[in-house]
Write a structure and sequence with these properties.
This protein is 83% helix and 0% strand. It has four helices and no strands.
Length: 81
C-alpha cells in the first residue's frame, strides 16, 4: 500500500464526514455546486484507480455518493417551492 493512498483516504474521509450535518440539515448547497463537485470527484476516482490507489478510489466514490444525495435533496427542495 502506498503512503499517498493513506493520506488521500484520511483527507477524503474527513471531508466526507463533514458533509453529514449538511445532509441531515435543512440548508443545502446550490445544485450547481453539487454537480460540479460530483464531476470532479468522479475524475479523482478514475485517477486514483489509474494510480493504483484502491482505498482512495473507494473512499472518494463514497464521497461522490454523499454529494449525489445532496444534489438530490436540493432538487427535491426546488420542486417543493
Amino acid at each position: 500500500m502506498k503512503w499517498q493512498d493513506l493520506i488521500f483516504v484520511a483527507g477524503i474521509t474527513i471531508l466526507s464526514l463533514s458533509l453529514i450535518p449538511t445532509i441531515r440539515g435543512r440548508q443545502k448547497p446550490a445544485l450547481i455546486t453539487s454537480l460540479v463537485t460530483i464531476v470532479i470527484l468522479i475524475i479523482f476516482v478514475v485517477t486514483d484507480v489509474s494510480l493504483n490507489l484502491p482505498l482512495s478510489a473507494a473512499v472518494t466514490a463514497l464521497s461522490v455518493v454523499a454529494w449525489v444525495i445532496l444534489a438530490y435533496q436540493k432538487s427535491r427542495q426546488a420542486k417543493r417551492r
